[in-house]
Design a protein that fits this description.
TIM Barrel; 11 helices; binds zinc ion
Length: about 400
């Protein structure tokens, strides 16, 4: 029954901007550089100083003592950002103890350098972030989240919960089951209350609007961030224009309804991303997998009407498989040029880190992923990261002869 979901993200992201102290100066030369702002440099050098990008261009001078990487044959892109990812599963303490190191490494190896935690326990997400920031754990930077219940509560209770979570420094507030077609008046009243309170505490409310009606209701309630592309019915140009005019940012989760193979079973039977059988076991589904069609077409409708549309998987399974599945769905409707913009600057805007991530421009954090083939030739070339750099630190290096 997952439908309209409220999440709150903090707007104060300065803490994520700090470069790791250990970051070494670095020069990657002779590489193709997909800057992320529309520019592609066919053979250039990227210089990193103090964890940030110092210069990008043809003949950039290397800082003395900088580590050199010969980028011949490599294509560089901004490190991947997932604007809505389920990270911790099950008991958080147990997960942190037994799984965190392995799971975080999988994200890095897939090319992710920033994740916004789309769910899970608030305390667990905060603890995960603490460990990553302290360097106890290696992984992408994590923007934590928590959840607020919009059902069986009053506006005052919902406001109090918003204040409590913001007080903890939590950037996210959790999921609630709200009628998608359309939300109930009580749900909307509570949603309005937390949107209003979010402004007092410097947070942002994000909603899973799964139908066009829920999307419009969320925009009318003042919600600034939408996590989900509607999958019940078609989004009209007018509705999409309304989202764009309100300045509301939207994430993809385009693969929500698309059949998934070889993750939960190896028997060529399609599943959903939770392992349940496709197409009949989808949450609240209309049947026969229509969601897959609504999602992808609505994605393009939102994009074409000027919505800032970013990348989010809303998944909890293997990072590389989730990346492949989301890209496969986006590939149906978007060019690779579009996908670069969608994944880079648009997703950086969604996670409120435009100044720091999303492109390979001077001044930004050196979050870089390198591939042996050109992603502009096809999304599948983004599934083979050989070097991943986070804040100037080389966190993955699979080049031949290295490691
Ligand atoms: Zn979610």
């Amino acid at each position: 029954m997952q439908a309209l979901v409220a999440i709150v993200g903090g707007v104060l992201c300065a803490v994520f901007a700090a470069a790791p102290a250990a970051a070494q100066d670095l020069v990657i030369s002779n590489a193709r550089i997909i800057v992320g702002n529309g520019t592609v440099i066919e053979s250039g050098a990227l210089v990193v100083r103090g964890g940030r990008i110092a210069s990008v261009g043809a003949g950039a001078p290397a800082p003395a003592g900088a580590r050199q990487i010969d980028g011949r044959g490599l294509t560089l892109m901004p490190g991947f950002i997932d604007g809505h990812r389920h990270i911790i599963s099950g008991n958080a303490d147990q997960w942190l103890k037994d799984q965190a190191a392995t799971r975080m490494q999988e994200f890095l190896e897939a090319g992710y350098t920033t994740l916004l935690a789309g769910g899970g326990p608030a305390e667990g997400n905060l603890e995960l972030k603490r460990r990553l920031d302290a360097g106890v754990l290696k992984g992408p930077r994590v923007i934590p989240a928590a959840q607020i219940n919009l059902n069986n509560t009053t506006p005052e209770q919902a406001r109090a919960e918003m204040r409590r979570l913001a007080g903890l420094g939590i950037r996210f507030i959790g999921e609630e089951n709200i009628n998608p077609k359309p939300p109930t008046p009580g749900q909307i009243e509570n949603l309005r209350a937390i949107v209003d309170e979010s402004k007092n505490v410097g947070a942002l409310v994000m909603v899973h609007a799964v139908s066009p009606q829920a999307m419009v209701a969320a925009v009318d309630a003042g919600v600034p961030l939408l996590v989900h592309t509607p999958h019940f019915g078609w989004v009209t140009n007018e509705e999409a224009k309304k989202v764009a005019a309100a300045g509301v940012l939207n994430l993809s989760t385009a693969a929500f309804g698309v059949p998934l193979f070889d993750v939960f079973s190896q028997d060529n039977v399609p599943t959903f991303r939770d392992g349940k059988r496709w197409p009949d076991d989808i949450l609240d589904g209309d049947g026969r997998g229509q969601e897959a069609g609504y999602k992808t077409v609505n994605a393009r409708t939102l994009w074409d009407n000027g919505v800032v549309y970013g990348f989010g998987t809303d998944t909890g399974y293997l990072p590389l498989k989730g990346l492949a599945q989301e890209l496969k769905a986006l590939n149906l409707m978007f060019s690779m040029k579009d996908i670069v913009k969608l994944m880079g600057p648009n997703t950086a805007a969604f996670v409120q880190m435009s100044r720091d991530i999303g492109s390979l421009e001077p001044g930004k954090l050196a979050d870089i992923v390198a591939f042996p083939a050109n992603p502009l030739d096809g999304y599948w070339n983004m599934l083979n990261a050989v070097v991943v750099i986070k804040g100037g630190d080389i966190v993955v290096d699979k080049r031949a002869g290295r490691r």
